[in-house]
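Write out the 3D structure for:
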Amino acid sequence: MCGIAGVFNRAHREPVQLEVLENMLALIQHRGPDQAGIYRDANCSMVNARLSILDISGGQQPISNQDETLWIVYNGEIFNDLALKRNLINLGHQFHTETDTEVILHLYEQYGPQFLEMINGQYAIAIWDRKKETLFLARDRIGIRPLFYSNFGKQFVFSSEIKAFLAIPNWQAEIDPQVLQQIFTYWGPLTPNSTFKNVHEVKPGHYMLVSNTHSEEISYWEPHFEKKKSAPDENDLIEEFGNLLIDSSQIRLRADVPVGAYLSGGLDSSTIAAIITSYTNTPLETFSIQFEDPRYDEKLFQDQMVERLNVHHNAIFCRAQDIGNIFSEVIWHTETPILRTSPAPMYLLSRLVHQHDYKVVLTGEGADEILGGYDIFKENKIRRFIANHPETANVSKLYACLYPEIPQLNARSQFLQAFFGQDIQETKSPFYSHHLRWSNTARSLRFLKTANQTLPSDPNYPIELPKQFSTWTPLAQAQFLEMKTFLTPYLLSSQGDRMAMANSVEGRYPFLDYRLMEFANSLPDQVKLRGLQEKWILRKFASKFLPIEIWRRRKKPYRAPIQHSFLNQASSPQTAFYFNEQNLINFGYFNTRAAVKLYEKALATPQLSEMEEMAFVGILSTQILHDHFCNRNFPKVKLDRGIPLKLIDLAISV
């Protein structure tokens, strides 16, 4: 795993200064502190910060093909590289390393961009073709690894993280108010947008070709939900699903360094850990978060799994004040405002992994999206049923089924009916499943200085839908929207890649193997969401590995403390600084009076509402982000001169 960045001097030959490239490298060196590499010629320059996982001594980037006309820097892993390498050798290709990086380069040389359909992994790729003077960029199918780009004058710049652009002379970060509205509605910027003006992200499942005169972005994969024409036996489906999950877990264990696993105590991570212990002879080390606040803690379930699997377990104990203490660092790495504090404990967790000298962990992320695991899928099902059967539905009991663990909520049946009954008859809207969530979150828009405080009408939602979308089942439509608006722009970014790589840790995601995703997308709905039991097929498969208390356990959403994280003795000064009236005015994003009143209410009230907490975090994180990027008040870093640096300098004066 690595960090990559580069500059393509379009239509002119003027080498980028080495000092600029070193500064870009320094700003992303946390992604790969083991080795560094710089490639430079008159047209294109690329850098790589390497986290050495495969071929530790021989895989330093940048890497070239045999005649040195193609050069690659690469962030990620592909897991079927050995078979692909054998085929390439049979075709006459010669290799000098044992890395998957070199396999990718030769695949591109042999097949062009079509090679992307052949690889299975998580990646952001940059290949410079010296002959054609063309830059090739590509991102994995679901967007596990980030890749940003910007046209800045005559330069096309790209990087794993936006902070590398701060090294470009005269580049100025500017938060986009229109994208802020997206964040305060959908929880994150919708690809290809980033939080900053003139900074975009390569779309998942897409590649770009950039030349001196133009650039184009081309799709090679997108999630589809066409069902199998016949109805297979459910036992056969469970077996096929299990075989795919076992294989996707096993191939993600390949590394020349130890591989650990996250173990939250929930169904998803417990299943992955159980597969590892059942199908390998290597002792497993696991890692988890434990919370001081019992509302968020899952220690009892973690302990049960540790005893069951006989693994060596490590846990980080997280208090509300810990979240406040590291929040500024967290926002430096998310590079976007966030509406929840959940990334902060993940940052602490990856730091724990790093402290135990682990570079790779397997996680359970993605299971909820591909198998209908979230409450939003149940809400969609119940609301549609009530809309279609208004006279016969026992509305109160149906809504009470959604959150049986919250008795005080279920006692308020009138509130439930009013809340879940919003726009309940609008079932023909393609965004029906998510309109309730988005409209509830969008109430925070009133804190923005300039914002349309109502959701756009359906045709104007900034989400591109496939042509086949209208033919899919309601569950499939909801899953697609969840992948596009939550999984990629928020979960895999702010909670995933960015929190792990901040501490030089690579997360691997067996549930997001594209073969497993495509299989799950083809399954009948009732195999995923049976009645109101989520992830039915996973539960059936996991029952052979896990104790009944785990595989039958209702999903507990992962959350973290908010309000009290920022108002304790340690974090209060920083919070007060960013909610200061003059700073709110100077930064210029929020309705000053409304933001100050919210801050004062947080000081005076034991518990803000959920919407108020989300707005509080959104305001605070935006202010911090502006300070880091726009005011350039960020941690000063220098390139570590103690690590090996590979310099390929082909720059010439013209």
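The first helix runs from residue 18 to 27.
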